[in-house]
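Task: sequence design from structure.
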């Protein structure tokens, strides 16, 4: 798809006040003419990785929590890894874009650990029909910005929304100062 958003971030605008997506930062993993899928990068839940995937806790990037990837298939897990280099990915890892890969969570951990630089586990994912995402963008629900590898494995997810916006140019950087409750401004 010529205008694919895969590898970019969807950053919720202040107009998007839906509970789960409010002030969310979504990494788009796949986008074509029919669907778009991604994971929310800044919504950790109160669950350790070993609670969901025994044995994966020790390799998880801080904070070593499971993140809510979105509202779709909450009973499934998605594992993203930092995959250094630009050659073929190691066994058990599918390179998505740049240094970001999708790990097969059934792969032997002793094969995965030496090959990755970071790991984040998500419960579920976010999904849209392509038309639905286009409509949400047209209604001022999302900003689309470039992703950085550090965004995916950020150790301080509670401030990621502001920091991603702050590094943008022009008026978009000003949105980072938007108060959580404009009525108190």
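Answer:
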């Amino acid at each position: 798809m010529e205008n694919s958003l895969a590898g970019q971030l969807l950053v919720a605008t202040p107009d998007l006040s839906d509970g789960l997506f409010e002030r969310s930062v979504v990494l788009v993993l796949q986008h074509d003419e029919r669907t778009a899928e991604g994971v929310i990068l800044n919504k950790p839940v109160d669950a350790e990785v070993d609670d969901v995937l025994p044995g994966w806790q020790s390799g998880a990037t801080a904070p070593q929590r499971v993140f809510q990837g979105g509202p779709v298939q909450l009973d499934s897990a998605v594992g993203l890894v930092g995959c250094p280099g630009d050659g073929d990915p190691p066994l058990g890892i599918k390179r998505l874009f740049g240094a970001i890969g999708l790990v097969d969570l059934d792969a032997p951990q002793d094969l995965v650990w030496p090959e990755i630089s970071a790991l984040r586990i998500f419960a579920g994912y976010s999904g849209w029909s392509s038309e639905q995402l286009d409509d949400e963008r047209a209604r001022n629900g999302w900003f689309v910005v470039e992703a950085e590898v550090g965004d995916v494995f950020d150790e301080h997810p509670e401030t990621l929304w502001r920091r991603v916006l702050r590094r943008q140019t022009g008026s978009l950087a000003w949105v980072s100062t938007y108060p959580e409750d404009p009525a108190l401004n």
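The chain has a mean pLDDT of 92.
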